[in-house]
Amino acid sequence: MATVFFYNFILFSSTFFVWLSEKGRTKLDRWVLLGIAFLLVFVPAAIRYDIGTDYLNYLAIYEGTSAIKTLEPYKFKEPLFYFVNWFLKSIDAHFQWMFAAFAFIFTAAAFKAYPRKNAWLLHFLFFSMLLFFSFNGLRQAVALSLSFLALFHFFERRYFWFFALNIVGATFHQSALFITATGLAALIPLGIHLKTRIAPFVFIGFIGFTYISMSVVLVYLEQILNLVGLTKYAGYFSSTRHFIPRDFGSGLGVLAKLLFSIYIILNAKALIELNKNYWLLIILTFAYALGIVLANNIVIFGRMADTFILAPVIGAFLLFHLPKNKQFHRLVLTVFLLFLILSFSKEGIGTETSYADPKRNPYQTIFSE
Question: What is the pLDDT of residue 228?
Fold first, then answer.
């Protein structure tokens, strides 16, 4: 239980200092308080030892101790991930500096995205949903953090920075290209009626159909993947390793995330009227909800949900600021936040599943190696 309390301390204490930074009277006050919040998140991630499912895999890649897991395949596939490892190895840095470097980029990009007002809420949402993921999916977590920053540039119509940051993110993990492609799709000129009245119900209808008729959807998905030549991914459908339920928590946990995503989609009209570029958020939320539903039957689709996990983070933050029906939106948000607190504590226990061992408990540092 000490580890669970420790993880909760990281989340709540860092959130407190982000909130306190907004009360700072001077710029220096705000920077100092944000710096404390940053260190509270960054340091435990930087000094962790054998925490996270893929910790030892990344260690093997860095040290080159495995004939299977090597750095070379990433040279052109994800070049910045390769470069960081190559540079640290070239100066004979201890392997822990590699974990520290990626923890720094992940945390710094997230903090850079924070607005001046109510940053504490965005901080809590982001790290309650992505802190543990950053221990497991090191490369993808860095890419997601850069995409997180990129999305706020998109909402402010700074498209160059949106695409530039996502391309940089893709050099750590190619999943950032999916968010880039979704951004391109969101720029296709469509009527406001389609975006606010037709599309939300089409999205919700498809999510509901997938949830109810999973077997039918999976058959068609497998056929489509084979048809377009993605036989590797189609093979997952017959894999005993991948075709198993994803551990998103209890069935209630899946339902809570799904219902909250649907609630965001139902508020498409209010969001798009506030900012027409929030249409991208609606598309991302649909993709995230679909990923959750599919991941219940085939674990590999958990990667789809992970790719679009930024949608409920940003969606929850924006619901808090909607001018109409404030009380009801904030009631829904409060219930979702309570769910995240319970979910975060449960994930901190780090229960092993049939797919993988999250290796979160007990927490240990490099100094205890």
Answer: 65
CB-count exposure of residue 14 (10 Å: 0-12, 13-18, 19+): buried
pTM of the model: 0.91
Q: Where are the domains of the chain?
A: 1-158, 189-359
For residues 174 and 139, the answer to whether their CB atoms sit within 8 Å is no
- The DSSP secondary-structure symbol of 48 reads B
Q: Where are the alpha helices (DSSP H) in 113-213?
A: 119-136, 138-155, 159-170, 176-186, 192-193, 199-212
Q: How many CB atoms lie within 10 A of CB 109?
A: 21
Q: How far apart are CA 263 and CA 270, in angstroms?
A: 12
Task: Give the C-alpha distances (Å, rounded to integers) separating 252 from 70, 286, 292.
Answer: 40, 19, 12
**Residue 263: which of 241, 282, 237 has the closest Cα?**
282
CA-nearest of 39, 24, 91 to 62 is: 91
Q: Half-sphere exposure (CA, 13 Å, Cβ side) for 330?
A: 9
Q: What span, in angstroms and rounded, lies between the C-alpha atoms of 68 and 57?
A: 10
- In terms of Cα–Cα distance, which of 283, 282, 304, 280 is closest to 292? 304
Q: How confident is the model at residue 318 (pLDDT cuts 50, 70, 90)?
A: very high
156 confidence band (pLDDT: 50, 70, 90): very high
Residue 9 three-state SS: helix
| CB contact at 8 A, 30 and 24 | yes
**CA atoms of 106 and 275, how far apart (whole Å):** 27
Please check the confidence at residue 111 and state whether its pLDDT lies above 90: yes
> Do 267 and 275 contact (CB within 8 A), yes or no?
no
In 3D space, the residue among 292, 213, 283 whose CA is nearest the CA of residue 252 turns out to be 292
